Structures are given as structure tokens and as C-alpha cells.
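pinned: reference chain
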Amino acid sequence: ALWRADTASGHGFSAKSGARQAPRRALGNERLRIAGANLRNLRDVDCEIPLGALTVITGPSGAGKTTLARDVLLASLRADSAIGCATFEAPAMRAIAVDQAPLGNNPRSNPATYTKVFDKIRDVFAAETGRSASEFTFNRGEGACPECEGMGAVEIALRYVAPVWVPCEACEGRRYRSEVLDALWSGMSIADVLACSVDDAHALFAEHRPITRVLDTLRDVGLGYITLGQPSPSLSGGEAQRVRLAREVTKAKAGDVVLLDEPTTGLHPADLDRLLNVLHRLTENGCTVVVVEHQQDVIASSDWTIDLGPGGGPEGGRLLHCGAPAATARPRVTPRRKPRARRRSADVISVRGARAHNLQSIDVDFAKERFTVVTGVSGSGKSSLVNDVVAAEATRRLLECLSVYERESVREGPEAPVDSLTGLGPTTIIDATTSITDARDAARATVGRSSDLDRLIAIVMARAGVRTCLACGANNVQRTSQAPEAKWRCGDCDATAVPIEPRHFTGSPAAICAHCLGFGTERHVLPEKVVLRPEAPICAGCFARDTVVGYFCDEKLSGIHSLRAFAERHQFDPKTTPWSELTDDAQHAFLFGDPVPFPATDGAGSFFPRDGHGWYWGGMDQWAIGDLGGSWTQVGPCSACRGKRLRAEYLTVHLDGRDRSELFSTPLSELEAVLTSMGEPEDELATNARTVALHRLRFLKSVGLGYLHLDRPSWTLSAGEAQRIKLASVLGGGLVGMTVLLDEPSRGLHPSEVTALARTLTELRDAGNTLIAVEHDPTFIRAADNVIEIGPGPGRAGGRVVDVASNASVTRAVLDRRVTIPRREARRDPTGWMHVTGARENNLRGLDVRVPLGVQVGVCGVSGSGKSSLVVDTIALALTRPKTNVSGAGVVRVAAGDHDAIAGAPDRTVVADQTRAEITSPGMWLGLIDAVRKAFAASEVAREQGITVKDLRYDCDACNGRGTWQEGMWFLPSVAQTCDACAGTGYRHEIAELVERGRTLADIEGLTIAEFVDEWGDLAVVRRVGDAAIELGLGYLIVRQPGWSLSGGEAQRLKLAKELARRGPAGALYVLDEPTVGLQATDVLVLTAALDAIVDAGNTVLVVEHDPALLATCDWLIEMGPGAGPEGGQIVFEGKPEELAEAVTPTAPYLREALT
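pinned: its C-alpha cells
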């Protein structure tokens, strides 16, 4: 139908007007000549470009087009010498690059100011009103609103959170002073003109030729629809480039070279003739135009073409054609007569030659519209297949769909290590990460946002909620129309109210509390936690290291200027004056802010609040919002909104008598009841939103997350909770044909909840989607349509596809229940007791609990019952402080949960989790590499050369010890290249050549831990630590294997191995949170043996766990419950496993089965 439609799109896509032909322009003899271009993948390209003509450089992606145009031609013109080529011949010419970079980075920049047409418009207003032209610019104080300085919005910039632009209340976003807005021309203010589109402004200023001349150029490049005042950051890359082109058209002079990179990006076919006319007008005026382009009509309309290829990357960079456009027969394209009868996509996702990590070039087929489980022992390569091959390739393909402009701001990884991957289709990745790396993300990320439930509930509230009148209190405030942003009016007292739309409930700057910026909380510095040494100066050890003081004391950073200005006012030296000698006023001002402004002319306060009087010292309090973990601050509700996040007028909408704050803090299970009881709304949008929200809420409730609420910060979620929240975001949306990748979806689930999740996944499959999950749980494996096992062993012994029906299959043994945990003949007796009193974290309500010492203690219960709140958030954080300065660790909680006291605790507490942030490699973590380096340093050759242990570091000058370097490919993913200087070892040349026992350091680091111990086991530290790792089943790990490539189970066992090898007094408390995540049943056997060894050495193990097999090996069990959230937080059982098996609790039947 579109093909035959008499519309712009119909004509454009069916090419009814015929192919555009190149004009017959006579070319002169003057040329730009490039010889021997060899930059990046260019292969000695010799070419010439005629002056005064339109030249198109074309070829496939990665062929070298942009390299030739920008990095050779443009760079050589500007340098007036050969850059990236052997010789360059050209007359003296001005080079103009029209690229897709943003025109500006704040709302002041817009098409009108960039093209200078705004200067002419201001002159018209000045002549009409008698005011000066400077009063009609928002970039100067004469006309700009003093509150927002002409921005139309006020930026709230904080270090740790994304900037928030709040509409200026003084000018209502119109940028100007009120008296300037009162000055009219043709009945319009200057702000009204800025709100006009280019087409409307052209008609408005039809009598003013200087203005319409500039507007004509914007219309000629297809931008008649944009508004004159549209902020530049909101323009697409193609729009920004064409605005630049419009400006250069008015400025370009004969003899100039104008370079454009894909100007047709985002351009409708109907506007193509306009763009070509502009390019030809430039050449007619004596300019030389060079365009990098793929579009066939642009190529056909050129005077000269340079074709590079034949492929991309190493297969490109060769000159295929240089001259007049070659006549090519364009294939006739017609629409399909009938819809395809057969399926367009393949029936399988075909993976060929997967080589990530230990995968041994395997071939795998995943059936479409089926539920496939990928399983195997820990370290076998299953996650490498799903995450590092399939998910990595899906991500790369998604990024390739973005425009060149958008890809500039995206960090792209390398291509997946696979020969081919076909049939993938649209893919969503549901992993266990919270996608948070620092407080910038964490401060606003919530359960509601992650699950998309906040948007759905906001639609229901805005379209079907009951609104209370602030004037008379009646619940009769209605929309005056269904149009967006329509006024609301009270049916009782006729008072009007501000428009309320769904966005106002999900963080809109117009609705959030101006005091707390919508966080609902305030953080304040705790002097007793930040001032550690009062006798020391501010910049000499007075403050805790994890505060922001280091920023102000670093001579290389701008913060030092602010501190010096503050110190000069309060008459002290931050580097020599002890904190204790500062006046009380100076100390208070340093911590909590100085209310007296500094001069506006002082540039030191670039990071601090400003107003018309100057800038202010915000104090450490200003940075407190970044301390989400609570290491040096305390948090409380916002004093302005009392924790409700929104301004009063946006809290007048209710569902079931609850405003937005109350609904978003309601447990999800209760929120489901609210939506169910309200009935079906009359508004169609609200009805659809309610239906989808109910579907997701029921799923979250069925998998044990009914205790969460929408405002729960995402960074506080466990890995399992985060994954199920993400999964909820794809449910109820009617997705069909998707490939859904999941990593251990059963993590954190009580056995009673696993079946519900498996049922939900099968429903998603039945809707026409393909599910691929890395999983060990027998319930999931039985629910799957297909099972792919990777193995048979870990590391080098794995990486192959194992037939599940064969004897080598661990999965078959698990399903046949042939792998059992050895039963303990007698439970160990406690050597003492630790008492926790008054625990009040989350749903714990003054809980008192006793924990036996000298034994293995398991804490179990349904999801949300309070297990982690008690063990991880209260006991562990109260007894040990987590590391907060580990790169990549993200937001780390420091403050322990509320409690009265912990008595009888061991002197040392160790938290062995599954995070990998601290582990650079197994050899470095265990100290194996340090031990062998000492042996190398003690060798005769090393002593003769004066080489010490300090020299035996990864210290290659070329790659900084990484062994590789990244080769930038501009708009393609960077390529990792092995460092030639160190041959990938990371060592300097003289270090890499050292040999001891017939091997270099690099050779030794390539061994497995088991091989390493065989060769270097005569060193006591190697034998002790290496044997501990081997006993935990980690002998297969490569000594220098990157830490990021380890599974969570491997990382945890490495930490346990280090502790088992530690020489120290017994009596420590070891805390583990769900250590069986990612472990096959055979791996659990190894883990239980390790925990037994820790207890037998005189220590205590306290483990939060769901797996009945591990719980059966404990000496003492504590079950929390009976339900989740408000229904939990109590101890429903404590005692030996055999006693729990006979009790009536959620865990009892599963434990009973494990014990029989």
C-alpha cells in the first residue's frame, strides 16, 4: 500500500521519479592529489580530486572512507603538508569540516544562534521597540532572566548524580526578563519567535530578506520543521550536521574545500533533492565539495567518485575506482506480491566455532521458540558460551544499529570470539547485575524503574486516579480536556490546578521536591566519622580517606583553588594548621557550608552553587549524597517534603486513598491488591497499563518478591532479586520473537518458589519467544525443552559439548539423583554462643537471636523472610568493614543495620562472597606469583644484573603492563592487539628473558594451579596455598587467568582457599551468602568439604542458603519467616537439621527429602 501511495514516502521508496542523474559539469584540470595514503588500513592509495566539483568517497563500512577524507585529506589541507600519505599536492585552500558533533552542550545553543539568524531577528525587534539589540539576547544580563541566566531552566549539578534541569520558575522557561517579554513585534515576543519552526519563521519574516536568506538554507537541507530555539543537545547527529551545512552555505567562498560525512543520515528521501541542490550550489560558487556517502542517488549525482574496498578492515583500504561516476544498472525493486508463506528467520540460533575462554571451538544449535538450559560443572564454559559469545554478539549487533553520531558516545567491545552466529534475532539479556557502577546511577535507580512498573502505575494514577482540590478539599478535580498538559479544574469551587501527566510521578523536574531533588532523603556529614585525627591539618591526614577531602587538597585538581579561597577567609592554612586549632565557625562551615557568598569574579567555585551574588562553599555536606553506603554520613527524610519526593500539588492524586509516595512504598503484594480492587478504568491507556502492571506484580509475588516496593533502591537488591526484577520488565508486554538470555535465574529462590519461576518462563516461551538459561537447578533442567551440557570438567578439561545421555554427563547423574551429599553421622556441639539483640533492619522487628559458635550454622527461609537482613546487613557489617575503594565494586554498603548489641562475637570475621572486583588473577590473589618472583629475584642471573623483586612487575613501557593495547577503529569496535614490545607478557624485555628452572615468568603464569604446584611445590607458601586451592577443586585455573573471567563460584572458592591457607589463630567467623549459586551438585560436594575443614580448624561458618543439600550438612539451622516482607522477620525454627525436617515450615519438606 505504501508503494502505491501518493505520498512523500510512497514516492521516495518506490522511486517513481526515477534515478537522479549526475549533471553534465565540465571538470577543469586543477586537482588535489594524494599519493601513497597508508594510514590505518589504507593500502598505498593514489587518488585525485577535481577542484570546483562534487566528489563522493564511497565503499563498504570499514573500507577507509573516513580515514581518507578526514585523517588524510582534511589533516593535510590544514597542516599544509602530507599527513598519512607519501605526498600531497594542493593549492592553498581553506578546509571546512561539516561533521555530526553536537552544536553545543547546553540549552543556550540552538539553530537560530548557531546560524546567526538570531542576530538579525534581534535587530528587527530593536528597530520596532526602541530597545537595544543586546536586550533581546538571553546570553547577556540585559535581557536574560537573572534566575536561570537565560537557560530557561536551572541545572542542579551534583558530583555523584546526573544533572537535573528544573524549569525556571521566574521566567517559566521563556529565558528572558519580564520587561523584555513585554516588548512585542507583530504581536509576538522574542520568546514566541524562538518557539516558531523554521517554516513558520520564514513566513513571518517574509519582508526581511537578510533573515529569510538564512532560513532558506535551513529549509533547503530539509530542516523546515525544527524550531529556532530548539536546544542543540536535542538535535540528532544528522540534524546537527545539516544545521552546520546551512551555516557554511552562507559563509563558504570560492576556493574552499567543504567536507561532509554521510549528510543523508536521518534524511527523508523526499528531502534528498534539496540537499543535492545545496551541494551543487556550493560547487557552482567555486567550492570543492567532498562527501563520504553510501546513498546511491548522491553517488549518481556526483561529478567524481572515489571507491574504496572491496571489504572492511583488513579486507578494505584499496582503491577500486577514481574518476567520473561509473554507469551502473540499478536493479528494479518492486514490492512482494504476496506475504511470505514460510518463516523468514532460521529455526535455530546456530553458533559455530565458539572460542571464548576455555571453549574449544564448539558448535551449538539453540532451537527457536524453545526453552534451553545450558548447564555443566563450575568453570566448564557454560557462561562463556551464553554470556561471552551469544550475549556479546547480540550487544554488538544492537550497537551497530545506532547511527554513527550515537556510537561516538558508546563504549563498544570487541567482536565475540566465534566463527559465525546466525538466526539470533532481537535479544534481551536478563542478568544478575544491577547495572550500577557508582552513586551517579544508584541515587535514582529503583525497583520501579528497573521493572518499568513506575511508568505503568504513573499512567494509572494520572488517567484514573482521584484528585483532591487544594483549595476546598473536595475529591472532584477533573481534566478540562484529554489533551496533554490540559488544565484541571475543581467541580466544587471552580479552582484550577496544575496539569498532571504520568511523567510527573516518575522524576519530572517540574514535579520533584526542589529541596531534595526527588530523592526523598537528606544526607549529612557525621563529624565523628570523618575527623579521624583532629591534631592533623585538613590536607595532612585529618580526614578519613574515603571522603572527598583529597579532591580539594590535590594541587593538580581545581578543588585546591576553592579550598584556598575558603581557608583565606577563615585565616588558616589547610596544609599546616591542625583541625583542632580552627575556630568553631570555620569547622562548621567546612563541614556544612558557608552561607556567605564569595565574589562572583572568583573563578574558584566552578563546582559550587552560584547566584547573582557569587558562589558558595557548599561544605562536605554538599558531597554527602554520594556516600550511599553510609561510611561517613547519616541519612534522614527530606525536611521539605517529609520523604514524599514530590511537591504538594503532585501529591493530590490518589488510588485507594494513597498518594504517589504511599503507593510506591507499599509492598508489591499489597499494590497488586490495590490495582485489583479498583476495577477496570474507563480510560483506555489506564486500562492497558493496569493490565500489564498486574501481570508483572503477580509474577514478582509468585517468585517471592512481593515484599519489595517500587521506591526500593536497586543497589540494595541481591543478585537474584535484581535479575527477577529485570525479568518482570519483559512480561506482559506482548513480546514475540525475542531471544531471552538468563544467567542462573533460580539464584536466591527458595525451593518452593522455583516452580513458579519455571512456569513463568515456559509461558514466555509459549508466547513465541526463545529462552536460553545458564542453570543448575534440577527443577529448571526438567522444565526445559532442551539441555546442553558443557564439560566434562572445568577449565582445560571442559569447553566441549557433552552428550547428556552419556556416562560422562554430570547432569544425567543429578537428574537420576545419583549425586548425594554425604550424611553427617553426628552434629558438632557448639563451643559458645553469639547473641544478637534488637535487630531492626528492614522487616526485622527488634529480633533477638543466638548463634552457636564452633559449628556450621545455616540460615534459611523463603525469599524476603529476613535472612540477609540479619546475617549480611546486620551481623557481617557490624563485625567487619567492607572494602570501599575496590575499582569496579560499585556502591558498597558500610553502615550496619539497626540493632542494639552483638555479644560474644569472635575476634575476627571474614565475609567470603562471590564478587570478583578484588581478584586480578588467581596467582596474584593467592600470592603464587609473588612467591615465584622472589625465587627469580634470588637467582644468580638476577643478582648479577641487579634485578630485585620490585623490578619483576608488569611494567612494560609500551602497554603499561597489560600485554595488549587497543587500536581505535573510529566508528567500529576497537581491536585488541598483542603488545609487540613485551610479546603480551606485560614484562620489560630484560625481565621477560629471565629463566628459572627452564621457564620464564610468562611460561609459569600460563600453567594451571595444579601444574604450578607440581613444579614449585618445594616453596612452602606455594605448597600451602596451592594445595588449599586444589582441595577446593580449583587446580584447573590458569595462574594468570583474568579475574573478570572467573565465575562467582570460582571467586568465592579462591577466597576460601586463601583463608584455609592462612596461618593464624582459630576462632574466626566466616560469613557466606548463598555460596551454592552457580555450583553443580558435584561442586557442592567440594564446597561442603571446604566448610567442614574450616569448622574443624576451630572456626564458625554462618551461611545464608536455600539449597537443601548444603543445609543438610549444617550442625544448626535457623529458619526465618514464616512469610516475606511484613509477614516475615521472625524466627520460626532453630535447632538441628533432623528436628527442622520434622517441623511444619516452608523449608521442612525439602530438607526432609535431602536427609533421606
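why pinned: Residues 157-163, 601-612, 885-889 have pLDDT under 50 and may be disordered. Residues 382-400 form the longest helix (19 residues).
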